[in-house]
Amino acid sequence: MSKKNLISIVGPTAIGKTTLAIALAKHYKTEIISADSRQFYKEMSIGTAVPSQEELASVPHHFIQHKSIFEEFTVGDFEREAIKKLEILFEDNDIVVMVGGSGLYVDAIKDGLDSFPTIDPKIRETLNETLVTQGILSLQERLKIMDRDYYDQVDLSNPHRLIRALEVCIGSGLPYTSFLNQKKPERNFNTITIAINADREIIYDRINQRVDIMLELGLLEEVASLKDQQTLNALQTVGYRELFSYFKGDYDLNTAIAEIKKNTRRFAKRQLTWLRKKEDILWVDYEYNLNEILEKIDQKRTG
Predict the structure, then answer these.
(1) 190 and 168 belong to one structural domain
(2) Region (Interaction with substrate tRNA) spans which residues (predicted)?
């Protein structure tokens, strides 16, 4: 039986992934799987750039605002649920579109995850509280002691990665790296990855504009409504952490906004670093020609 095709749209934040994903889904009369881990939570709309109601209505979307910040939803949970959803969608579609800039979540669907032991959720709660009260440096130093190999390779500015590694180290008593690079499951679909890119100045300008638009749409009010929940794992992310610091008095508002823009630019840089390590990616300019992309996809399709 011929394999089905998953078209994965990736690229730095604010580059226009949603627009391309919707255009492709309309062309192929199919549906969209979101692999943006920030957009899973219904309480977070503005700061995560959730697609507009018009965009969501134009094509069926899955895994957008389907969870609450009070619910635990790991990348392993996403992998299991998204693979099940894909099996259903592939019954009626030869192609499904996936879109998102969360590299770990994209890789989980394309390649599968390493297997980790079940960890007591209280460990993560404690680590999140440590992040808020003592800062990211305390997590970095602890990881340096518990798993120096992973400390040397992980993005030390990413609290999600630090907390994930530490909770495994603490909960299992073994280094996080001891669970990596295991044999992955074989997927019964072919993945075609399309990465949107632009010159750095253009990406940075689009990011700055997006942050300004978020503020106009009410980002400050959204974050204020979540202040009492700021230790939750879902809220340890750019756009929220900086404004929590503003509400605590650590920053004035202009400084907090500048920090959001700076940290978002750093996030975009990390996304591109992740992508450049990948093979077999179709790179397209942000001012792409849709017909040219469709031709490239047809050349890559199986079945």
Answers:
(1) no
(2) 36-39
